[in-house]
Design goal:
402 residues, mainly beta, Tachylectin-2, Chain A, five-stranded antiparallel β-sheet
Length: 402
């Protein structure tokens, strides 16, 4: 027997988890809050603008991208930075000196993708080092206005013994950056163009020997398109056309529409033998502060089985004050927390309790979270999937290949 999440999703209990706070107890307004779990179970969280303050509340500066660890997965809203020599929060992906002649920001939206295969993972874990990659969006700042420049990628090294993490950007003086170097090579020069979709700006997902990069078309519809790259033999990116893969980015066709932020992950929540193995959780580009969920049978989709969680109530950090931003954004799932997906070998261990976070924005806003318990059922593992749910009723979100 096993527990399965019933589709369409229905929230039957919501428990506020508060703000995603720092282990120092210092006041650190920040946004994004996208987590990644390594194969050893350790979790890190990437944040955007982080307004650092000392223990006395004095402002120390803002970092445009930071990365913290979760010391205890059973306490999922507590994170901790490895402070620098000045006891300040460090930047994760650094800009090189004079790399840009204009004010520029790095936005860490992809998460971190671990790249060791099964044959090398044991060796690297014995040494305590886990390798991965993270993609980031590069934007030019003109006052409060931003202009997209291109996507960048950095190699990530995580020391599981010291619980320290660092990002290494490819430069002429640094070797052994693998896939990151391939990304910056001439064979992939097309991804540097601001006229092309921002592959990796929504999320990244590893499936077997491929990394799938979901990004936005630069139009008002915020259409999401897909590229992928092979890990074992980095070659130029290929692009999803709706029916197959092409070597030409112009052949891309949207797999979702009106998406601002989100994450796609592999799951067994619908059953160990379910055809639905992938879930999307995020938010639309409409600024409606609503959680979107969808499921699919493959990373490419179709992602047309999507629902708005109208029974989920997001909140701001101080209910006695107006919200710090005009709407909530950066809505992300954290399936590693609260036993949501359970233990792979025990189908009855799934709790249905799903931690989802969001950013409230502004100069003093934080990343908040709640546990959403979804309606579950118990069935035999051998039982087939339920029939697809027909769309209609109060469904307000639709997405899929155009």
């Amino acid at each position: 027997m096993e527990k399965r999440m019933i589709w369409p999703p229905k929230v039957i209990l919501q428990t506020p988890l508060g703000i995603m706070r720092d282990g120092t107890g210092n006041w650190l307004p920040r946004d994004i809050g996208k987590s990644s779990q390594f194969s050893n179970g350790h979790v890190v969280v990437q944040f955007g603008d982080t307004f650092d303050h000392d223990p006395n509340g004095n402002f120390l500066g803002v970092r445009d991208n930071t990365c913290a660890i979760i010391p205890d997965n059973n306490n999922p809203t507590l994170s901790k930075y490895k402070l620098d020599s000045k006891d300040e929060v460090p930047v994760f992906v650094h800009q090189r000196p004079k790399e840009f002649a204009i004010p520029t920001k790095f936005w860490s939206f992809s998460g971190i993708i671990e790249v060791e295969g099964d044959q090398t993972r044991k060796c690297h874990h014995e040494k305590g080092i886990i390798h991965g990659y993270t993609w980031f969006k590069i934007t030019r700042m003109t006052g409060m206005d931003e202009t997209y420049l291109r996507m960048g990628v950095a190699k990530v090294e995580y020391d599981s013994r010291s619980r320290q993490i660092r990002a290494i950007k490819p430069t002429p003086g640094i070797e052994n950056v693998g896939l990151a170097q391939s990304h910056e090579s001439l064979s992939n020069v097309e991804l540097k163009s601001a006229t092309l979709p921002s592959f990796g700006s929504i999320t990244a997902l590893r499936v077997d020997d491929f990394i799938y990069l979901y990004g936005q078309i630069l139009d008002a519809d915020k259409d999401v398109v897909l590229a992928r790259i092979r890990i074992s033999c980095p070659t130029p990116y290929t692009y999803w056309t709706g029916t197959g893969w092409s070597a030409f980015p112009a052949d891309c066709r949207p797999i979702m529409s009106h998406i601002e932020h989100g994450q796609i992950f592999h799951t067994t929540i619908f059953g160990a033998n379910s055809l639905y193995k992938y879930m999307f959780v995020g938010c639309s580009s409409f600024g409606d502060s609503k959680i979107l969920m969808a499921r699919a049978k493959s990373p490419e989709g179709p992602w047309d089985d999507g629902w708005v969680l109208n029974d989920a109530d997001l909140y701001n950090s101080d209910p006695n004050k107006p919200p710090t931003g005009p709407f909530f954004y950066c809505i992300y799932p954290h399936p590693w927390a609260l036993g949501f997906d359970g233990v792979e070998s025990d189908g009855m261990s799934k709790t249905g309790d799903f931690m989802i976070s969001w950013s409230e924005g502004g100069l003093v806003g934080g990343v908040l979270a709640a546990s959403f318990r979804f309606n579950m059922e118990v069935k035999r593992i051998a039982d087939p999937d339920d029939e697809p749910v027909k769309r209609g009723g109060d469904v307000k979100w639709s997405c899929g290949p155009n």
